[in-house]
Predict the 3D structure of the following.
Amino acid sequence: MLVSPYLVHFFLFVAFPVAFSIVLTSHKWNIISPMEYTGLNNYIRLFNDKTFFKSIGNTLIFLVIHIPLQIIVALFLAEILNQKIKLRGAFRGAFFLPVIVSGVVVTILWQQLYGYDTGLLNRLLTGIGIAKVGWLTDPNIAMSSIALMATWKNVGLYIILFLVGLQTVPTQYYEAADLEGATHMQKFFKITLPMINPTIFMVVILSTIGGFSLFIEPYIMTGGGPLNSTVSAVLYIYKQGFFYYHMGYAATLGLFFAFIILAVVVIQKKFIEKDH
Amino acid sequence: MKNLLNMIIIVLLTYLLNSCSSSNKDSRDEILYWCSNNNDEIKFAKLSTDEWNKNNPNDQVKYQAVPEGRSSEEIILAAVVGNTTPDIYSNMWQGDVEAYAQAGVLVALDSLNGFLDFLYERCDSSVVEEIKSLDGHIYQIPWKINPIMLIYNINLINELELNGPPKTYSEVFNASQKFQKDFDNDGYVDRWFGYSEVEVTWWQRFFDFYPLYLAASGGAPLVKNNRAAFNNKYAIEVFSFLQEMYNKNYFSKEKLSARQDVFLAGVTATRFVGPWEIAHAEKFKPKGFEYEYNFMPVPDDHIGPVYTYGDPKNIVIFKTCKDPQAAWNYVKTMISDEGDLKLLSLTNQLPRRKKLNTNPFFSDYFLKNPKMKIFADQSEYVKGTDASPVLKEIFDLISQQYEACVVYGMKTPEQAINDAADAVNLLFLE
């Protein structure tokens, strides 16, 4: 009886949608017409869909750029903000500010900064004699631009996590290292990094989950272009479902993508367990 | 206890499902009409229903703006799914009708008394053919159009010392070359002849490729008999034309729409837009700014009238309507001569009817609104969309090839059009 509210919620909003989407994978359905059984057609289509695999590739490219960049920048800033510097509180607040600003607002703002002819970044570049960059119009650069923006947006959150991690490192270790004459770099690589390993893993997992759900940024900034170079897997699934109402196919893509995420999470979990 | 809990859950679920599925029609006898949610069309709906209700106490019509949402298309879809559709909806994009017709949620209007006579009196037979569904029935009545034309800045075009606005592709190239400027000599263009969104979103092609294709081809269809019909010289010419415009930087590849209005700011000399731009320009144009409209540019060897895309919005009656004949009787008054004049005066949108530009009933309006007369003249040569339930996918496939060929020059126009046609033909096979 006591767990019944949870059970009702679970069946209505978790179990039923999941079961329904699995059923959908073997049907053709555009919402307004009756469902039509199509067997394995959606799966066959998936394995022949180059754009979908490109979207997964794009998502992985995003992760490969975004995660290391996020960790390096956040850790570097956290290390500085962990020192006794002037206005430390103000800086911590300032770096956290983008996290609480709406993703849509940030995206529109960066879209302006990235403008080819009129954007501030290119104005600065041309001001110092460097050629303009097609931040969002060059297919080879667009995804990196999005990863850079996402890093700026989220770095504040990871700074906080790293700060927490850094403050749990016992100061005696550093004192002992000082007595041995260790350099700052040696202390960082031999003491700090190993001690905050769990935090790094947590940041990797959170960034991976966030990265896999990449949607707002390409949806608003590029619409998936140029030449599908910024179509993320979620954006592609969304387009199939809610632009073209290929509900059966979108469910198939979603299920497949869920298995990919599951595989990545399992691999990451294995690494974490091994480390522990 | 367990049984009681099960019963409560079942009762709750049944109640929920019933609330979702049952429409509120049982609780009303009046006809519900959903209009667009822009202020001018709400005014039109109010006037139109007030007048009808005064004279028809037994068939009262209640108007309501389509509920707020990201787009009216999504709201209508949600209403269809929830079985909460209105009786009449007046802002249905023509391209959506086929899918709804195939889903069986629309009334076949040709089964109603007097419909066909009225339709043939209102529209040319070519329009009737255009709106006919694949099953041979007619599920929509043409209501209004907003033709896409070339708007140009008179002062800037005059500066180029041309004989008026460019009409053909080579005239556009010539004007573009003269207009393009790098004011600060930094090696980058600061003003472009025109601008069109480079986004791949399917409907963006309504403002570049599609009207240009209709203009070049004399209104040819994109698909016919479930096959791509656009793999022809006209589509290739349009891709070649636009490819050169982007290649030579006469059109900007950058997204300019997020900043100030580039046309009113004089950053571009032209754009492809509809009559809605008139109200916008009149409100925001700087002092001394003058503009005019012209036909879409065509290939140099083009002969005959210049067609364009009309962006048609039509009226449909949903099957949830208890009395479609009464609903049709109301719609007839809504699109009568008086109704259409009201639509024109209140919304500055053109009714889709034959001889609009020469009908004396509307001449006063066009005398007072000379810019709208240009659109009325164009309205004789507009096309909507082909009847196909996969129209959005077709435009999406064209749009992807458009991006690869026109914007990035990675394919020849011939290759791109062939690839798009092959993909569309595959789509029909699925």
Chain A has a mean pLDDT of 90. The CA atoms of residues 115 and 135 of chain A lie 7 Å apart. The interface with chain B takes residues 1, 4, 8, 30-33, 41, 45, 108, 111-112, 115-118, 126, 132, 134, 136-137, 139, 223-228, 243-245 of chain A (CB under 8 Å).
